[in-house]
Design a protein that fits this description.
The chain is mostly helical and about 160 residues long. The chain is built from five helices and no strands. The longest helix has 30 residues. About 5% of the residues are buried. Keywords: Membrane, Transmembrane, Transmembrane helix.
């Protein structure tokens, strides 16, 4: 909850902003030529002042709500309660022990790194693949081996096929 000066800034900022906007709307709607320039200027000033008061009040309120970074102040809570030096030391030792146990658990859970791959591949031990011409000739002979296939294919020129 914001303190009284912050609450006052926020309330006055809201009132000035809303009041200035309302006065501007009414002034533009009814348009009094004799005081139009002065009223427009005062309304803009009210809106800007109210907006700046509102923003500054909100910034001050948010600044108080920021949570401090955990650290040595962890042992001295913001409520005003302070630990005795013995209590602070006991708590610090317990936290250190818990941290050590956590780091040991994480060390145990780590897997062994996989061995690196060799920089050069092993030599090729398989025989090389057949050439394109050899494969095509084998395909032709395999397609024309049965007499039924030869009758279906007219362009078959294989020694096993008879036209």
């Amino acid at each position: 909850m914001p303190s009284p000066p912050q609450s006052l800034l926020i309330c006055v900022g809201i009132l000035l902003t809303v009041g200035g906007a309302t006065a501007m709307f009414i002034g533009l709607h009814f348009h009094f030529p004799s005081v139009f320039g002065v009223s427009l200027f005062l309304e803009l000033i009210a809106i800007l002042a109210g907006g700046s008061m509102l923003v500054s009040g909100l910034c001050m309120a948010m600044k108080k709500l920021q949570v401090s970074v955990p650290g040595p102040s962890l042992l001295h809570p913001r409520t005003g309660i302070r630990f005795s030096p013995e209590q602070a030391l006991a708590i610090q030792r317990r936290l250190d022990r818990i941290r050590r146990e956590m780091s040991e658990d994480s060390d145990i859970g780590r897997a062994e790194p996989e061995p690196c791959l060799p920089s050069t591949p092993p030599p090729w031990t398989m025989e090389p693949p057949p050439s394109y011409d050899t494969v095509m000739k084998q395909e032709e002979t395999a397609a024309c081996e049965s007499p039924d296939d030869c009758q279906a294919e007219e362009g078959c020129v294989s020694p096993t096929c008879e036209p």
